Amino acid sequence: MEEALKEMLIPLFDSAPYLVSLAAGFLTFLSPCVLPLIPAYLSYISGLSLKKLQGREEVTFGDKLHIMQASLMFIFGFSLIFVLLGVVVESTIGDMLQSDIASMIAGGIIIIFGLHTMHVINIGFLNFEARAQFGDVHSGGTSLRQKFMHFFAPFVLGLSFALGWSPCV
């Protein structure tokens, strides 16, 4: 079964890599690790309430422009990490990751992380979080620092989202 699937997919990857990448990205977006978080991230990135984002309150043209700018910055940060991870992994250890031994090691790591998540075992260094304190980035502010942070905070959030959710997707 696995060999038949490989024989079917490899020519598709070779003939339409961008289409396959787009489809993989879309499926990743729909994954249970990502899709449920989108409304909260849009609200946080844009600084707008969930009611405005859901259309229950009026959204001004300026709000829409800000949402677009913030979303593009988030996507840029997110994409940068995934592209860099792909390039670095492929150029350094890509061939090693295709071996059966690497698959077994990766499977073992996933099982260990699953047991940690279920609180069957405790891995201390995984029990922390880090938060960047930007202040009120949604106010727009008047100082150059506040304007800079207002513009780049979604980019940093995209970077952190990609780093945090890479293992899931």
Please give the structural blueprint:
Blueprint: H1 2-15, H2 17-29, H3 38-46, H4 50-53, H5 61-93, H6 100-117, H7 144-165
Helix pairs in contact: 1-2, 5-7
Quick structural overview:
The protein has seven helices and no strands.
Total separate domains: 1
Determine the number of helices (DSSP H or I, runs of at least 4 residues).
Answer: 7
Q: Provide the residue-averaged pLDDT.
A: 79
Largest sheet: none
Q: Which band does the percent of strand residues land in? A: under 5%
Structural Rg:
20 Å
Topology as H/E string? Answer: HHHHHHH
Runs with pLDDT <50, length 5+? Answer: none
What does this protein structure show overall?
The structure is a single chain. The chain is mostly helical. It has one domain (31-165). The protein is 67% helix and 0% strand. It has helices at residues 2-15, 17-29, 38-46, 50-53, 61-93, 100-117, 144-165. The mean pLDDT is 79.
Top keywords for this entry?
mainly alpha; 67% helix; globular; 169 residues
